[in-house]
Amino acid sequence: MTPTLVRRRAAHAGPARQVDRRARARDWSEIQERMLVPLYEAVYERLEVGSGTRLLALGCGSGLALLLAASRGAAVTGIDPASPERLDLARQRLLPQAGDTRARADARILDGPLEDLRRADGSPAPAYTLVTAFEPIGGLAGDADGLAGRLAAATHLTERGAPVVLAGWGPPERCATSSVLRVAARAADPAAVPGPGARDGLRDGLEEVARLAGLRPDGSGRVACPFGYADLGSAVRGMLSTGLFDAAIEASDHHQVDKELTEALHGYQRSDGTVWMPNVFRYLIARTR
After folding, report:
1. Which CATH number goes with the domain that contains 145?
2. Would the CA dihedral through 144, 145, 150, 155 be positive or negative?
3. Is residue 44 within 8 Å of 69, Cβ to Cβ?
4. Quick check: helix, strand or coil at residue 285?
């Protein structure tokens, strides 16, 4: 389907299809979020996250990365204003509830802006020793917009020299998912990046975001994060839960996006019905000044 045809269809298709964001959040939590566990663990291991760590997670999703940090002894705070549905799931995972021995008393989920990070008496919270922004940039054009500003705001809440971690897609030739994400770019916006890693200069994109946020790059790494699913249906739900296809669904037709996504995933389906897509993600460690 050409971008021109998508635009014509969107103009005559009537009201845009709305995405069920609560269902998407559940699919993210139950299917997709675990695909990034190797990234989380590699960063935590390298930075020796433990009982002395005070972690602020920007775009914390449904809280799995927070849970892993808390299991290492870290005090964790998560914020994700773009997805209150995911944030509700993070709250269920982490906040103390009567009789729930799995809840983390040293965890906090923030509904409002970063300025709301205060103690109960109104005084500033202790400075954070680590900030993470694990949501990978480079999937669609403009997905890094605003990240530098959020990082700059977060650094005012950290200790001097604290590490700030950004993540992004690796080179397209090492990310099988890049061909699948072209479905979202093609259907939603002809100007969008056709898959992770395709934008000119993306190799240095994380460094550029860090520079704009006033941070000092201090090392990087690459981590294999294969996307594996039990079957094609789970793969479709998992990929849709990323949010990268929402604009395509609202701009065109839900069933057409599902159809094109299913076709793109067929190439990664194994003889036993499972779906396997090798990917490499890159992370950058920067320091506050």
Report:
1. 3.40.50.150
2. positive
3. yes
4. strand
Per the listing, tokens 């000119």 go with 200
Residue 218, classed as helix, strand or coil, is strand
**Containing structural domain, residue 151:** 3-287
Cα separation, 41 vs 153, in Å, equals 25
Tokens of 201: 């200069």
Nearest Cα residue to 224 out of 173, 275, 172, 170: 170
Cα separation, 22 vs 24, in Å, equals 5
SS3 41: helix
Task: Print pLDDT tens along the chain (289 aa).
Answer: 333 333 333 333 444 456 788 999 999 999 999 999 999 999 999 999 999 999 999 999 999 999 999 999 999 999 998 899 999 999 999 986 645 555 565 899 998 777 777 655 555 667 999 999 999 986 655 566 688 999 999 998 999 999 999 999 999 999 999 999 988 877 666 554 445 544 433 556 899 999 999 999 999 999 999 999 999 999 999 999 999 898 888 887 788 899 999 999 999 999 999 999 999 999 999 999 9
* Cα–Cα dist 239/179, whole Å: 12
* DSSP string covering 119-136: -TTSPBPPPBSEEEEEEE
Query: Where does residue 49 rank: exposed (0-12), middle (13-18), buried (19+ CB within 10 A)?
Result: buried
Total of domains in the chain: 1
